[in-house]
Amino acid sequence: MTEKFTEWRPEWTPKEEKQVEAAVSELRRRISTLKALRQQLGLSQAELSEILETSQSNVSKMETKGEPRLSVLRKIIEHKGGRLRLIAEFDGEKFDLAL
Predict the structure, then answer these.
(1) In the chain, where do the E strands start and end?
(2) Is residue 48 part of a domain?
């Protein structure tokens, strides 16, 4: 009997399973960044598309694409009256980088 695709699972070592889980977790975190910001600000995809001067379908794609560009985040944050800061830290010393 042929097993269904949804039931198939590769035979990974415990180490490989942990690596895959970590990669999936990181991907979910990266994908959710723009969506989380939009939701935190109480914006719909349509409202965000107006701010970014693009279509709602492009906003949807950006939310699932991965890490958003800093320029996109800055435009959203500044539109809502905020300021985006980037801070690098080395051995406890912090550097505020201009964006």
Answers:
(1) 86-90, 93-97
(2) yes
**Rg value, the chain, Cα:** 19
Q: How many domains does the chain have?
A: 1
Write the pLDDT tens digit of every residue in 49-93: 999 999 999 999 988 877 788 899 999 999 999 999 989 999 989
Q: Is residue 75 within 8 Å of residue 51, measured between CB atoms?
A: yes
pTM, two decimal places = 0.61
3-state helix/strand/coil string of 16-31: HHHHHHHHHHHHHHHH
Q: Which two tokens stand for residue 56?
A: 């709602």
Residue 93 backbone dihedrals phi, psi, to 5 degrees: -95, 130
